């Protein structure tokens, strides 16, 4: 027996051999044998039996091209060299209900002079689950793209190629659903197929890619500098664009591999988190994973899990921060600010949950709850014969999309039977919301006193003030404290105050922390202030003590 057949036998004994074949090119004859452990039977044929498999139509679509190449190589004997190596390919054969079974073909391609004939030998066998997991998918034309395979191969490369740095890059199409809706699913599918084709061309042999789900793709690539990743992504983006004049854009998430033992899945998840974190960002479409994003996301999920029960259990509480007249340090009002009294974490400040609620819409419920607390409080003071103190409540921008918040406020005013001027509304106006101005006008027409919150924080400008229905400007603390430092900053504040007086607006400064700031404001003509100099936001009972003194 020659060395070649010996090698094949050795292989067959090790594996669960399905069939063993050899090809006699001179006689143009194929021989197929069953496992030699079974009773001997030999089939011979002039046709390429592997091509028959292909013709049967049962080869999995994704594997066809690679299998065709393999089969023609066997037919012609081309590509077969004298190297002492094993060539493998894998393919899936479809059974009933599209259930697929993996087969592997191994050939020992060395041309040998077997009885003065040129012969190659090979085996075909059904793969075990272990082999499917572990097989080397970049061997030969087998750059398999199933996510599971991809993941285990990527993991292996990251572990073994220690001289290289690796990055996981995940991307998807922003608003892919919209493309499907607008152009039809067929076009959507074509587009995705186009992406696969482009990736095939664009990715080098060193880079691997897979399609994870409908429009989410993953690439694992070695890199030297972070700038390599940026230029790779920008180039890829350009290559992927411009299909059938359809307008679409991408969102990328990157995770740089640090610890090479991190499971591939975790690295992939991190790239996904980075991708999700840049969604909706108008300026940047590449996000890098870092631990902060992850804990931010975990925090968000944790908040969303607990928020409804927290509202039911009364964990949201209204605090009041008094507003003062600078000249006589008397309390002239209060701002209602929400606090979350978490049984485990204690007092949670609103900056850590209000932005989450604004995204998921729950802020509407919280605001309505706080509005009701404020109305109840005013009613209570009236019942106790205390001098009426106006409370201003925050109205999230989310409300400004429809007029419902105005009727909600009116209902509360009726329910607690309180004068409208005692419930003031703090609104942060932004230019991004086209409906907001109309809603603000409506609130004004409905008789509410309106405060423009966060004035000077970048959204609002003096010019727009002339046409807005606001009654009071609330100078933002950042604007205020930073500007105070310089001479020019002080001029801006004094002119802002002068101008708002000129157009008939009232003023209040928030975030007043020092006596100097208060004096300066007073000198400029602003007599109302809110800030730590006077009092922090405090529980209602403490506020009541303050006013009764
Ligand atoms: P805001 O409406 O600008 O509220 C003023 C914030 O400034 C409050 O923070 C207050 O504690 C803080 N502050 C007051 N005086 C000073 C000071 O002298 N120095 C400094 N450094 N800070 C001062 P807080 O209570 O943490 O609220 C943060 C933001 O959360 C609020 O900013 C508001 O946008 C939002 N928020 C709070 N409660 C509600 C609510 O019930 N509904 C809605 N939609 N948003 C709320
Ligand atoms: Ca406010
Ligand atoms: Ca503010």
Structural description of this entry:
The chain is an alpha/beta fold. It contains 19 helices and 21 strands. The chain has helices spanning 3-14, 49-55, 61-76, 129-134, 147-160, 176-183, 185-202, 226-240, 264-278, 291-312, 354-360, 363-383, 404-416, 436-445, 462-465, 477-484, 487-502, 515-524, 540-548; strands at residues 17-24, 29-33, 42-45, 87-94, 100-114, 117-126, 165-173, 208-213, 216-223, 250-256, 286-288, 316-325, 331-342, 346-348, 391-395, 423-427, 450-455, 472-475, 506-510, 528-530, 538-539. Strands 12-13-15-16-17-18-19-20 form an eight-stranded mixed β-barrel, surrounded by six helices. Strands 3-2-1-6-5-4 form a six-stranded antiparallel beta sheet, with helices on both faces. A five-stranded mixed beta sheet has the order 8-9-7-10-11, with helices on both faces. α6 (176-183) packs across α7 and α12 packs parallel to α13. The longest helix has 22 residues, at 291-312. The protein starts with a helix and ends with a helix. Residues 37-41 and 136-144 have low confidence and may be disordered. Bound molecules: ligand C2E and calcium ion (2 copies). Ligand C2E is lined by residues 321, 337-338, 349-351, 354, 363, 367, 370, 394, 396, 426, 453-454, 477, 510-513, 530-532, 537. Residues 321, 337-338, 349-351, 354, 363, 367, 370, 394, 396, 426, 453-454, 477, 510-513, 530-532, 537 line the site of ligand C2E.
């Amino acid at each position: 027996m020659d060395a070649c057949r010996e090698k094949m036998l050795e292989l067959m004994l090790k594996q669960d051999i399905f069939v063993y074949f050899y090809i006699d090119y001179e006689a143009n004859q194929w021989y197929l044998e069953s496992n030699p452990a079974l009773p001997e039977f030999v089939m011979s044929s002039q046709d390429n039996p592997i091509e028959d498999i292909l013709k049967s139509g049962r080869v999995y679509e994704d594997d066809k091209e690679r299998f065709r190449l393999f089969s023609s190589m066997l037919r012609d004997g081309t590509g077969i060299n004298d190297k002492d190596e094993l060539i493998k390919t894998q393919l899936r054969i479809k059974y009933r209900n599209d259930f697929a079974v993996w087969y592997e073909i191994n050939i020992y391609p060395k041309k040998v002079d077997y009885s003065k004939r040129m012969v190659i030998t090979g085996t075909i066998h059904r793969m075990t689950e272990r082999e499917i997991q572990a097989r080397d998918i970049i061997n030969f034309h087998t750059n398999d793209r199933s996510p599971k395979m991809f993941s285990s191969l990527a993991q292996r490369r990251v572990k073994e190629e220690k001289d290289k740095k690796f990055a996981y890059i995940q991307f998807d199409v922003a608003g892919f659903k919209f493309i499907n809706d607008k152009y039809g699913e067929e076009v959507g599918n074509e587009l995705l197929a186009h992406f696969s084709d482009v990736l095939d061309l664009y990715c080098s042999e060193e880079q691997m890619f897979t399609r994870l789900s409908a429009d989410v793709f993953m690439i694992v690539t070695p890199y030297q500098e972070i700038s390599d990743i940026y230029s790779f992504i920008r180039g890829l983006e350009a290559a992927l664009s411009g299909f059938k004049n359809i307008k679409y854009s991408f969102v990328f998430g990157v995770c740089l591999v640090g610890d090479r033992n991190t499971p591939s899945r975790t690295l992939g998840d991190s790239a996904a988190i980075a991708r999700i974190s840049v969604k909706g960002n108008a300026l940047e479409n590449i996000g890098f994973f870092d631990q902060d994003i992850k804990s931010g996301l975990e925090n968000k999920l944790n908040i969303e899990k607990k928020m409804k029960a927290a509202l039911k259990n009364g964990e949201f509480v209204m605090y009041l921060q008094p507003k003062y007249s600078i000249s006589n340090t008397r309390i002239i009002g209060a701002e209602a600010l929400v606090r979350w009294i978490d049984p485990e974490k204690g007092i949670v400040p609103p900056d850590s949950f209000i932005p989450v609620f604004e995204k998921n819409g729950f802020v509407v419920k919280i605001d309505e709850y706080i509005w009701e607390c404020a109305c109840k409080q005013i009613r209570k003071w009236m019942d106790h014969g205390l001098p009426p103190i106006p409370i201003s409540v925050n109205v999230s921008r989310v409300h400004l999309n429809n007029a419902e918040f105005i009727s909600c406020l009116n209902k509360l005013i009726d329910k607690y039977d309180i004068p409208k001027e005692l419930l003031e509304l703090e609104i942060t106006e932004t230019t991004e919301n086209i409906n907001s101005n109309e809603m603000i006008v409506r609130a004004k027409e409905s008789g509410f006193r309106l405060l423009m919150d966060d004035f000077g924080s970048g959204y609002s400008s003096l010019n727009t003030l002339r046409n807005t229905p606001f009654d009071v400007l609330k100078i933002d603390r950042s604007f205020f404290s930073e500007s105070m430092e310089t001479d020019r900053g002080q001029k801006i504040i004094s002119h802002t105050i002068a101008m708002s007086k000129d157009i008939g607006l009232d003023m209040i400064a928030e975030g007043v922390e020092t006596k100097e700031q208060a004096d300066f404001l007073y000198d400029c003509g602003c007599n109302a202030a809110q800030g730590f100099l006077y009092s922090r936001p405090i529980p209602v009972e403490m506020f009541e003590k303050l006013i009764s003194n």
